[in-house]
Every structure is written in structure tokens, then in C-alpha cells.
Design goal:
By secondary structure, this protein is of the alpha/beta class. It contains 10 helices and 9 strands. It has one domain: Rossmann fold. The strands form 2 sheets. Strands 3-2-1-4-5-9-8 form a 7-stranded mixed sheet, sandwiched between helices. The longest helix is centred in the N-terminal third of the chain and has 13 residues. The N and C termini lie far apart (49 Å).
Length: 242
């Protein structure tokens, strides 16, 4: 990478974000999500779920991804992403931005076109965890890069709670119930491991505490180990014998 700071290289994303506009948080997440996974993104076809203003789809391309499909449920954020890609002069043939529900879009995709799935700040804003993982496997993804808040429970659980759908940091009303408060689930670390194992993926976690971060401003969740960054890799399937 050319610089240790994403926001210095690409400051426009600080203006278009509707999540935490913290330079320190974005820069450190860039190093963990993109830098740590650079060898697994280079030359790969990437599906970015809940792509927001396109920052991580863009970052994947900047680190060498061959093609990125970004999926975002909120139309105005898709327009922000398009504007950002245009501003930074990204060739139109290396990306596609889709306005739609992530799981619905995945179900319509044909297998074989995805190498890496990015699930960044999305896994704890849904109750369709297993469907997401099973669809990723069906599409052929070798790697899943997941950044998610987690329950502090040691048991393999999913903690249910509600969040306001009118906050763009939160879930949409995926069930089309008309409710202003959407039911979502936050997995524990062991729960995340169990779900990935069931689908056939082994997982390793980025070591936030040992990563050399000396300023945790804007990152209390990572500092408290209630948010994790993980890379899951699909295990080779056993070949029947006899």
C-alpha cells in the first residue's frame, strides 16, 4: 500500500460516510480489513454486502481486485458510491453497484462468479446469518472477510435486539413488516465460528490487540474485544473413496 492512511489518500470518503466519520477508525479498519487481506483480494472477484458509500469496494479495487460487485439496500447510498467511483475515475467495467437487499441479490446470482465475499459491518444487522453464509458457499466464494460486532457471551449464541430502520447505520426492514424497529441478531465469537464451521469454512481472526494500534480513539468496540475482523477460508471438500 502507498500510505498508512486511507483518509489521506482518499479523503472524499470522509465526506460521504454516514457511519462514524473518524479518521482513526477508518484508517485502522483499512489496514485490518484490506491490508491484512491484500494477498487474498488481488486478482479476485469480490462481492461486497452492504457496501454503503462504496469505500471498501473501492479499497478492494485499489489493492488489486479484478472486479467488485457492491450491494446496498439504500438507494441514496448507491448513488454516493457511484459518485465516489466516478470522482476517483474507476473504470466502469471493473465494478457493478446494485441497489437491493443483500440476501435477495445473492439468491439471484449464478454460482462461480465470486471469489471473495466482504461482509463488513453487516453481519450483526441481520437475522439471516446462515442464509448469507450458505449463499456465499453456493456462489463459490473461497474467502469470506467479516467485520462484525459480537456478543460478549462465551457460549455460541445469537443475541437478539431491535434497531431503528430509519438510521442508515442499521438494518432495513428486511421482512417488510412496516415496523420502525427491526429485529436483528448479534453472534458471539464462538457462535460465528460455529456457523462458519457448519458451512465448511475455517476462520482466523485479526489480532487487534497485537496489531500495534496506539490510539484507540473512535474504536472502543475493537479495544473492548466486542468487534472482530475475521478471514474465513473454504475447506477442501473430502473426496469420496471406495
Amino acid at each position: 500500500m502507498q500510505s498508512s492512511n486511507f483518509c489521506d489518500l482518499y479523503p472524499r470518503f470522509l465526506e460521504t460516510t454516514e457511519t462514524a466519520p473518524s479518521r482513526n477508525r477508518i484508517d485502522n479498519r483499512w489496514r485490518a480489513i484490506i491490508g491484512w487481506n491484500e494477498p487474498y483480494l488481488a486478482g479476485r472477484r469480490v462481492l461486497d454486502l452492504g457496501c454503503h458509500d462504496g469505500r471498501w469496494s473501492f479499497a478492494a479495487l485499489m489493492t488489486g481486485a479484478a472486479h467488485v460487485v457492491g450491494v446496498e439496500a439504500r438507494a441514496h447510498l448507491v448513488e454516493k458510491a457511484r459518485d465516489n467511483f466516478t470522482f476517483y475515475r474507476i473504470p466502469r467495467d471493473v465494478y457493478e453497484l446494485i441497489n437491493g437487499d443483500a440476501i435477495d441479490v445473492m439468491r439471484l446470482m449464478r454460482p462461480g462468479g465470486v471469489d471473495v465475499v466482504l461482509c463488513l459491518g453487516f453481519f450483526y444487522h441481520t437475522l439471516e446469518h446462515m442464509r448469507l453464509l450458505l449463499e456465499a458457499k453456493r456462489l463459490g466464494a473461497e474467502f469470506l472477510i467479516i467485520d462484525t460486532a459480537i456478543s460478549a457471551a462465551e457460549e455460541p449464541i445469537i443475541s437478539l435486539h431491535r434497531e431503528a430502520a430509519n438510521d442508515t447505520r442499521n438494518s432495513i426492514d428486511y421482512g417488510k413488516t412496516g415496523s420502525a424497529n427491526v429485529l436483528v441478531g448479534m453472534p458471539s465469537r464462538s457462535g460465528l465460528i460455529a456457523m462458519l464451521d457448519y458451512v465448511g469454512y475455517g476462520v482466523v481472526f485479526f489480532d487487534w490487540q497485537g496489531s500495534g494500534v496506539d490510539d484507540w480513539a473512535g474504536m472502543p468496540d475493537y479495544a473492548a474485544n466486542i468487534r472482530v475482523t475475521a478471514r474465513a477460508r473454504r475447506r477442501a471438500e473430502a473426496v469420496p473413496t471406495g
